[in-house]
Specification:
The structure is a single chain. The chain has 29 helices and 8 strands. It has 656 residues and is mainly alpha-helical. Helix 2 packs parallel to helix 13 (282-301), helix 13 (282-301) packs across helix 16 and helix 19 packs parallel to helix 24 (566-579). The longest helix is centred in the N-terminal third of the chain and has 28 residues, at 70-97. The chain is globular and about 100 Å long.
């Protein structure tokens, strides 16, 4: 028989071990089904189909984040609190009408219920009254008999099967926010339910003390509303015309049919679609998911938009205003940002100077491009109201500067000064590369900080293109001219299709022992060309780590203006070749730019390596003062140890 098919009492069964990706969804180790057939041929056919279904389910689980987001949890909590506040208010009103109403008795009963759910919120379904809980309850005015009543109440809740909460209630909570009812999400819903009950019961003074926050200013608001101009009274014919012009009743009923939290579901569908088609890599998927989650959070917490179909143009305008001025400039770089509320993000932005608030126009436009794609995806699936929102009108206007004037230029003299600093001549130690060493020592360590600036100047490559190079991307055995093969690899992507190219290595790069470095790294078994940039505890681009080490060098030679970083060295590469009369099309081949015409882009082929080398060799030499040294790697790279700057996760730190 086929694998996963077996026979029992003449009937065939299908049994598969649960894929790891479905661990949060399936609460058992195996999936077991009767095929209800005695035919081995039919059993094999059905088993193959079930195998495919299970694999598809596992793939979907791996590619999508099925866990509840913070905004979804807050929406569930708001629902529980609102529902039970209303219910408790009604109970209190009914109690006050009874002849034997005892204020203190009813108030204390609510307090005991509050402490019961406080303990359930803190300890879970097996909550008990601990000695420290007795102390806190006594401080809150509970007597010993009240505390015993709390313990008895907990036992009663479990005995009557009220705790744990019925599964259909928890599933309804999860479904209401558009999430999948996985085992983990059901557990989160249970905790949220206990928390919501605690918060609702805590408002004892509201029910039995008359302390209602909404009473403040109520009379003033009522009187102001009375001063509004009266609405005209319509005759029967006019009223009939108004009713006929009203939208159909079916539209009113559906106005709240799609919870705002489902926007994240549409986002995940679009991400999966683009990932399967090979259009979006992991970084693009993270960017789309991040702005989608931020939009949902903003609409729920700031605009109180509960349904996608109630989302309007002015809501999106306020969201764009929030991105432009009320969020800090580097939002998204910290993993903590995803869990912060809108109020917390605003508070962080207020602590920053005005120049550090609001995202750049280009970044805003990228976010709106993602949202426009998600909107179109949702519209195609029945959420027609999103088609009425004009995101194009919210985009940042085009740049007024000429393209070549947008970024400040790095003078050639300052570029040359970079290579007179300690990392290229004589540094103090492997962990003090920016400090000068003793005179006459000429101590060097070959690493990213040494080779990447040299390579940027002599190849014109982007920072991340070089920092993410693999050892196999340095081609040494395909002809007499060594070159770099710039293409997507397992560590990083490339900016666009024309970025894939081959760049010959300048004679200065070879003179400074780059090939020997490559061979030394390869001999140690590394796949990454610059392993000193890699940390297993970080998902940041490798170029970010390089720039953190490179920036002090720039500052030391007076390069402090914003924009004059490693990318400015790449611009200098193009500028120097232009001065040497290298044509625009030839410079584009080296820089990884596309052509502007059909002739230059389609009806042509890239130059041979030998021809490209002639162009590269026209660059002015800025490293003629550097002396080649025998390859000396960083000690921890040589020993293949974890980077000293690596930060273990909190869980690992606790374990240690």
């Amino acid at each position: 028989m086929a694998v996963h098919i077996f026979r029992r009492d003449a009937v065939y069964y299908w049994r598969r071990r649960r894929p790891r990706a479905l661990a949060n969804i399936l609460d058992r180790q195996h999936v077991f089904l009767s095929l209800r057939t005695t035919s081995p041929v039919v059993a094999r056919r059905m088993g193959a189909q079930l195998d495919l279904i299970l694999e598809d389910a596992a793939m979907l689980a791996e590619s999508a984040d099925l866990n509840l987001s913070r905004s979804q949890i807050e929406t569930m909590l708001r629902g529980v609190v609102d529902q039970h506040l209303t219910k408790l208010d009604r109970v209190a009103h009914a109690a006050k009408r009874s002849a034997g109403f005892d204020f203190e008795r009813e108030r204390m009963a609510d307090k005991r219920a509050f402490w019961s759910y406080s303990l359930l919120d803190a300890q879970g379904v097996a909550a008990v009254v601990r000695p420290e809980d007795r102390i806190r309850m006594a401080a809150d005015g509970l007597s010993e008999s009240d505390i015993e009543a709390v313990q008895h109440h907990l036992m009663t809740l479990r005995f009557q099967d009220i705790v744990p909460t019925n599964q259909h209630i928890l599933r309804r909570m999860v479904d209401a926010v558009g999430a999948s009812p996985t085992a983990m999400n059901i557990d989160v819903a249970q905790g949220t339910y206990f928390r919501g009950m605690k918060l609702a019961l805590a408002k004892v003074d509201r029910r039995y003390g008359g302390s209602r926050v909404e009473d403040h200013g109520f009379v003033d608001r009522m009187l102001l509303a009375k001063s509004d101009p009266p609405k005209p009274i319509l005759g029967p014919e006019a009223a009939s015309r108004v009713r006929q012009s009203d939208p159909p009743a079916t539209e009113d009923r559906s106005a709240h049919s799609v919870p705002m939290a489902r926007f994240s579901e549409f986002t995940e569908q679009l991400i999966l679609q683009h990932a399967r088609d090979g259009h979006w890599d992991e970084k693009t998927q993270r960017q789309a998911r991040s702005i989608s989650n931020l939009l949902v959070k903003f609409m729920l917490q700031d605009q109180h938009v509960e349904s996608i179909e109630t989302l309007r143009q002015h809501h999106m305008g306020k969201f764009v205003d929030f991105l432009r001025s009320d969020i800090y400039q580097n939002y998204g770089k910290s993993p903590k940002d995803e869990g912060r509320s809108i109020a917390e993000l605003r508070a962080i932005a207020r602590e920053r100077p005005a120049s550090k608030r609001g995202i750049a126009g280009d970044t805003l436009n990228r976010h709106l491009t993602f949202l426009a794609q998600i909107f179109r995806h949702a519209v195609a699936r029945g959420v027609g109201t999103l088609a009425e929102i004009d995101l194009l009108a919210l985009r940042s206007k085009g740049k007024k500067k000429r393209a070549r004037d947008e970024r400040p230029k790095l003078p050639f003299e300052q570029a040359a000064a970079i290579f007179r600093t300690p990392p290229f001549n004589n540094c103090a130690a492997w962990d003090r590369l920016n400090e000068p060493g003793p005179d006459g020592l000429r101590q060097l360590f070959h690493c990213a900080l040494y080779f990447v600036p040299i390579l940027i100047y002599y190849t014109g490559c982007r920072r991340e293109e070089l920092c993410g190079l693999m050892v196999d991307d340095v081609i040494l055995d395909n002809g007499a001219i060594p070159y770099l093969h710039i293409a997507k690899n397992e560590r990083r992507r490339v900016k666009n299709p024309q970025s894939q190219r081959n760049i010959p290595l300048h004679s200065e790069v070879l003179r400074l022992n780059f090939v020997a470095y490559v061979k030394a790294i390869k001999a140690l078994g590394y796949k990454l060309l610059f392993p000193d940039l890699y940390s297993p505890s970080s998902r940041s681009p490798l170029g970010d780590r390089f720039y953190k080490e490179f920036k002090p060098i720039l500052v030391s030679v007076g390069v402090t203006e914003k924009g004059l970083g490693s990318h400015a060295v790449r611009h200098l590469f193009g500028a120097q070749l232009k001065k040497k009369l290298v044509t625009e099309e030839d410079r584009a081949d080296l820089l990884g730019h596309g052509g502007d015409s059909e002739t230059s882009e389609r009806y042509c082929e890239p130059h041979e390596i030998a021809t490209l080398l002639k162009f590269v060799e026209k660059l002015p030499v800025v490293t003629f003062d550097l002396e080649p040294q025998e390859v000396q790697l960083l000690p921890w790279v040589l020993k293949k140890e974890v980077a000293p700057f690596s930060q273990p996760s909190r869980s690992k730190r606790r374990d240690s």
